[in-house]
Design brief:
Distance between the termini: 6 Å
Helix content: 25-40%
Strand content: 15-25%
Shape: globular
Largest sheet: 6 strands, parallel
Length: 373
Amino acid sequence: MTTNDLPPFRADHVGSLLRPAKLLAAREDRAAGRISPEELRAVEDEAVREVVAMQAEVGLRSATDGEFRRTSWHMDFIYRLGGIGQSDESIKVRFRNADGQLEFSTAALHVDGPVRLRETIFADDFTFLSSVAGDVVVPKLTIPSPSMVHYRGGPAALDPAVYPDEDLFWADLSEAYAQQVGAVAQLGCRYLQLDDTSLAYLNDPAQRAVLAARGDDAEHQHLRYIKQINTALAGRPDGLRVTTHMCRGNFRSSWAAEGGYDFVAEALFSELAVDGFFLEYDDARSGSFAPLRFVPPGKQVVLGLITTKRGELESKDDIKRRIDEAAKYVPLEQLCLSPQCGFSSTVEGNTLTYDEQVAKLALIVEIAAEVWD
């Protein structure tokens, strides 16, 4: 069995990487007005060059820019869509970790105009990444899926004067995403990932209860999300590989939801029109591999068996045993390996060191070579 020629690759990763100290310092300097936007961009460019080189050196076949130019994995994108802005209200998300709980508070979004793609979002970022990647690694672009726009605020986030009918909102949002997909393909993107915590959160009964309380049809929400993602991807050009990544929250080594993929699995795996699924499987809260029985031939499953939430390095033998377990439900040739999430979904990053991050990526490459080569 050989490595994949097309993404997702046998050894892959989700996207975000720990921000280097000099980049964090430059962001603080820019926020305080001590440096110009151009000076910050120069620091970002240098950091991206270094992190792409690191990904190539450990043996990965794809590379991201680590999401170094973003504050968070999703909102930097969402707020650049026309018609979407910050609300005066805030959203509080409760995260959990081994030591207890922590709370993350952020501005809510509000849809107060027709949703439009005003520009190709992250165009300059991807163009730079592509120039750095060259022919050595495949440049991968990560963006939040369309469902994240809805999950963040629900129907209450829509101005009824703009969208008296939620179907009109969905039509505009999917069209904006379709334009974005086509535009990044024109820039040369051949590997696009739609990050989507909502489809994982919906497996948690507690999360569905929250949605039901705000007026959503929580029991069928995933069907709407799958439909709209498919609409956004319907016209994607040949040669563009698309994956989705689903996790249960990732903020400073903490999570927000629990539960296996059972609730969404049949519809998700059989209907979502992507080439591969990045799935969180680093501990018991992710459930069993049994839902993978719904994955059809031709789809890749990227097993997120390596945690990004702590620095201890996993045992090769343990990971190989887990791959064998998953292969009872999906043929081995359809499986790949990755971390369970990004290392820095927000600018703060998870609680591990740069060297621990690199060791985990190298371990993934080593295990993949031993299992599939």
